[in-house]
Amino acid sequence: MSCTCMELALQGERLCKAGDCRAGVQFFEAAVQAGTDDLKTLGAIYSQLGNAYFYLQDYPKALEYHKHDLNLARTCRDPVGEAKASGNLGNTLKVIGKFDEAIVCCMRHLEISRELSDRLGEARALYNLGNVWHAKGKHMGRTGNQDPGEFPPQVKECLQKAAQFYEENLSVVKELGDRSAQGRACGNLGNTHYLLGNFGQAINYHEERLSIAKEFGDKAAERRAFTNLGNAHIFLGEFEVAAEHYKKSLAIAKSLQDRALEAQACYSLGNTYTLLRDYPMAIEYHMRHLRIAQELSDRVGEGRAYWSLGNAHSALGNHESALDFASKHLQISKEIGDETGQMTAQMNLSDLKSMLGIDTQGDQANKDKEDVPDIALRRPERARRFSMENMEIMKLTPDKKEKEKIEGGARPKQKVQKSASIATDMDHSAHPGKTQIADRDSKKNGLSEEMDEDSFFDLLSRFQSRRIDDQRCSFRLLESGPVTPKSVPATKPTDLASLVASPGTEELMDMVAGFQVSRMNDQRASLPAFPGLNSGAVINQLLTRGQDRQVPDDSFFEMLMRCQASRLEDQRSELPKELPHPTVPDEDFFSLIMKVQSSRLDEQRSQLPKKNAPSTPGKKKKKGT
């Protein structure tokens, strides 16, 4: 049986290394089903299964097997296995957004690596911690739509911690002489300083990343470095330098035959030439981006292209073309539910129609007329209806004087005085004086009849209690049928002994106790179970071996409290997920272009003349006349 499990695991490992992780997972799952008593083999299978599921983006399954790996390593008192499993678990938790738990796991990986003097493991732990803090900062800052360097203090704190861990990682990998790891650290440091607004430092790190990528011939990393350099130069106002970097990024994307990356480079170039006010070149690159976005069915990218093209044509004075692109932008924004895009497109359409002399108010009036029935259009003008002013306010709750009557007997019916609208209109046209008197009387009655606050809350509590009663379950205490509230008489204190001694009470208490026990069981923690382990005797020997087991220290309980605190985050509502946009880069500086465009509008505004007191030269006012 053990050999069969080993053979299946080896075949799964070969398939995963060949890139066929889906088939490899099937062999690993079969190995778990076959089972083994070798704990090292079982731990290796857990680790490989977690990594394979992570690659397949099945993060719940990856989390499950990495937890099995961690529990097994702790049970076996294997610090190396615990460090490796903690790192894998931290990476998985980071991807699913549980950053605090991920930090705890990565810190445990770092602590064990330093205890074992494992410099390579220490470098990996530092790199993972930088990634978690960087991801947490970006996640916290994504809701504000701020430009780099303008994030709130809590976001900047996360990014600064990420930079600290990346710098420690860089020093360790330099000591180890790992040039590839140095390139990764420099790239991440450049991205972090870019978000912090340190664009000069970001450029230095990205240039170092570019040189290392050229050493290894890593074209993908080289393209990323050129793109990041272009983004940093944009915020320094060096648009010509940024355009050169984007062109090199576009050339590499073409050589890699990646249409989405090519579209991203075209989009960035179009925006850069817009900032340079070279609108013909901007239109050329935005049209290339539009064609690729349509080819890849990227509706978000297509909407951005129409938006950019409309702005460029408007700047050139081609208002008819700009109107066409703005209409298409509005249509796509409605389709994908982009409220900001809809508002922007509607404002652009309004401005363009006013420039072209199109009567937008007339169109809106005609549209409103189309929504009104013909009979309403033919209706003659008449005086305003006063039927609602003559209607009495319905009493939702009884007055205090009637409270005793309601509690003692049946609830009185409440009436609402109706008034015919036709009769009111006729009276208003025939006797305008009477109508004014009636209006004054009705206003006095409306002010005098205020709702009783205590009665209102009494009614509210009654409705709330009904909602709670709807969630209660009924019990069959007697054989005659369910007990309803009407059939239960009022119990006096002297009858408590007889009620407790009744035959149905004991069954009721047993049922309540059963419910309470099930609730307690839901909150209990279960001991780790290891799928694929044939015999539990091996685990029992490990658990009972040695009488000198240490009591968990304060750091363990501190880690436990952090993990418990993160459970509250699981109950929070998520932000709406963004639609995929493969042709639009993540670091989109479109807001910067909007600021530049708005400054151009301000330059075209005229100032109102200052109002000065009229004065006639050579003449003075006489005082006292």
From TrEMBL:
InterPro entries tied to this protein: GoLoco_motif (IPR003109), GPSM (IPR052386), TPR-like_helical_dom_sf (IPR011990), TPR_rpt (IPR019734)
Matches recorded under PROSITE patterns: GOLOCO, TPR
The keyword ATP-binding is assigned to this record: no
Gene Ontology CC terms, in alphabetical order: cytoplasm; plasma membrane
Subcellular localization, as worded in the UniProt entry: Cell membrane; Cytoplasm
Biased composition (Basic and acidic residues): 399-410, 437-447
Feature: compositional bias, Polar residues: 606-615
Residues covered by region (Disordered): 399-450, 600-625
Name assigned to this protein: G-protein-signaling modulator 2
